Amino acid sequence: MSLDALFDPRSVAVVGASADPAKWGYWLAAGALAGRSRRTVHLVNQRGGALDGVPFLPDLGSLATVPEQVVVAVPPPQVRTVVVQGLAAGARCFTVITSGGSGPQEERELAALVTSHGGRLLGPNCMGVVDTTTELRLSWGDFPSGAVGLVSQSGNLALEIGRLLARAGQGFSRFVSLGNQRDIDAADALDALIAHDATRVVAAYVEDFRDGRRLARTLAAAHTAGKPVLLLTLGRSEASGRAAASHTGALVSARAVVDAVCRDTGAILLESAGELVDTAVLLTAVRRGRASFPGGSRGRSRAVPAAVGDGALAAPEAPRITAHGTPAAPEAPRITADGTPAAPEAPRIAVVGDSGGQGALAADALAARGLDVPVLDEATRAAVAAYLPGRGGCGNPVDLAGAGEADLRNYARITRALLDGGGTDATVLTGYFGDYATANPGQTREECAVAEELGEAARKAGRLLVVHTMARDTPALTVLREHGVPVYERIEQAATALAHAARTARARPYAPPERVPSPARPVADGGYESVRALLRSHGLDFPTAEFVTTADEAAGAARRTGYPLALKAMGLAHKTEAGGVALGITDETALRAAFARMRDTTGATRYAVEEMAVHPHSVELIAGVRYDPAFGPVAMVGLGGVTAELLADTALALAPLTPGRARELLLSLRHAPLLTGWRGAPAVDLDAAADALCALARAASEHPELIELEVNPLLVHPGGAVALDAHGVLV
């Protein structure tokens, strides 16, 4: 349902308006009146009064025209009455600042009342809504105009982001305070920002993801539309209380799930408001159409398309579609000659600084964040050297060595040579530029003229220019910002923003699973015997085994299974740590001794006598699925065995999985070279490993009663994959 009535209503009524600047009603009313050249504004307060010559009316029934949006800023017990009056008056949208009643149930009933009449509700318990492109300011505080659209569950965080944006010469296109999300939620608001032409970068602070899969589809749609999404969220782990139940519970935290969803949809998960603003400022410069993203491509088109005629970025290519009509998995990572996955090609950055020290530190900061500071090609070196003292050679970083002090225009000349050179994707100017006029006001005009030249050089080259300077809020920096050149006070800010921009450029979003399969018949318990049977029914291979309760039964089973074998105690989550596993048993005497010892140590009443799986050149993996309250089943694979949590080398994705997606997860592990053939060893059967992950993910998706399902270890080898242990955790 359209949110036009939220962002650009033909008329607004503020209920609870006030003439007292200390009250919310004043700010809402004053903000509404600021847009009265575009829309009709009604102010309502049963006690009477006026603001800016506009009288307060006693109630919504007194309005001469229909209020398309009603802003409710009255005590909670009065909210429902106001909403009922608004619906009777024909209102289509309600922004509820205060809480919607005595608790969640009353708020849900309020939302149901509004939506049953075809309306929408923002909040309750929200800070309001702002659209600087339609002169709509229905909130408390100052919201500078700009190109960043923000969706937030925190009002104060939004104010902090706004102030940081203003200091950087940027601001908001739209701001939506979600509040308790009883109707309009994060996905709704983000969808509206994606479709909003004036919003170049989308930012969000979300605590409650609600329908996480729907939100994931929205994030992927934003990337397809060329709208970068920057996300902040909390780091609390839903799994912390269950960490002892399985390795999966310890490794798949709520934060890790969000991180994986962002990676797979092209969004960027950030750590702080400052980091969000730094990245947004750089990305708005890119989206302005004055530069392309820092690439990462070699000998092919840039990772993000160049600007089209109206200054917006063209949408990325649509995903490839298979013969079955489903999105094709992205191409697998390139493999080097030694069988290891090739690292992504890093964007190449040229650095020019006022001193060798600043340039070198800038290069280190960029390299530490995965960016490349390459040797410049011969033509670029010659073009730069022409303006350096002594016309000597130059490297990257370029040391101005006094060229700027000798002639301020050398900043523009040298930077232009770097921007026009063919071997880099972006240029960082670091040091003193922007501060000359502080010490010598007579240089203000010249420094501003050089800033104009820098901005024009970046525009004509179609490459990104980033400036790090020790200056702050000088006229030259204002000129740079007006030209869309990002300016940073610390080099680590610039480097981090460039690294995040590069991530958005290289992102190849996966289509999130559309739905989870319908639940199958629940399993009886999460023990090895039950889970093994479940996973075998989905095609996962296990060694031959029999389940026994006595030593004599164990000996009989061993004669049928054959030696060597393994003995496992049932009913233990961490069998090895509890002394519930004995491997490599070679005869009946050793078997009976292990059985007696295990019974005394663990107290178990049931045991598995299992064939030993011995495969040369095998690798132990852990594979698991955890049910996330917002995102549903989440699949995980990593290096396994008893060191799974120690290594913490894992990859996550929403389940179920396709074989291509499962293979991608395997190759994304830090230790993936062990799978592809390390130091001459044969590669494991990646297709079999991927099929095993798919079987596990499918089984977990069909059994929501299992909030965790794990195979550890999953032994993968050149001839296939076999599960050596499995465990589930019931709701």
What features would you describe in this structure?
This protein is α/β, with parallel strands linked by helices and 731 residues long. It has 4 domains: 4-234, Rossmann fold (3-Layer(aba) Sandwich), CATH 3.40.50.261; 349-506, 3-Layer(aba) Sandwich (Rossmann fold), CATH 3.40.50.261; 544-611, ATP-grasp fold, A domain (Dna Ligase, domain 1), CATH 3.30.1490; 619-730, ATP-grasp fold, B domain (D-amino Acid Aminotransferase, Chain A, domain 1), CATH 3.30.470. The protein is built from 25 helices and 29 strands. Strands 9-8-11-10-12-13-14 form a 7-stranded mixed beta sheet, sandwiched between helices. It is flat and about 95 Å long. The two termini are 36 Å apart.
Strand and helix map with partners:
Layout: H1 4-7, E1 11-15, H2 24-33, E2 40-44, E3 50-51, E4 54-55, E5 69-72, H3 76-89, E6 93-96, H4 104-116, E7 120-122, E8 128-131, E9 136-139, E10 145-152, H5 155-167, E11 172-177, H6 186-194, E12 201-205, H7 212-224, E13 229-232, H8 247-251, H9 254-265, E14 268-269, H10 273-290, E15 349-353, H11 356-368, H12 378-385, E16 398-399, H13 403-406, H14 409-420, E17 426-431, H15 436-439, H16 444-461, E18 464-469, H17 475-482, E19 487-488, H18 491-506, H19 528-537, E20 545-548, H20 551-561, E21 565-569, E22 581-585, H21 588-602, E23 607-611, E24 619-628, E25 632-639, H22 644-647, E26 650-654, H23 659-667, H24 673-676, H25 686-702, E27 706-717, E28 720-723, E29 726-730
Parallel strand pairs: 1-2, 1-5, 5-6, 6-7, 10-11, 10-12, 12-13, 13-14, 15-16, 15-17, 17-18, 18-19
Antiparallel strand pairs: 3-4, 8-9, 8-11, 20-23, 21-22, 21-23, 24-25, 24-27, 25-26, 27-28, 27-29
Helix pairs in contact: 5-10, 6-7, 7-9, 10-18, 11-18, 12-14, 14-16, 16-17, 20-21, 23-25
Pfam families: ATP-grasp_5, CoA_binding_2, Ligase_CoA_2, Succ_CoA_lig
Domain ATP-grasp: 532-581
Protein name: Acetate--CoA ligase family protein
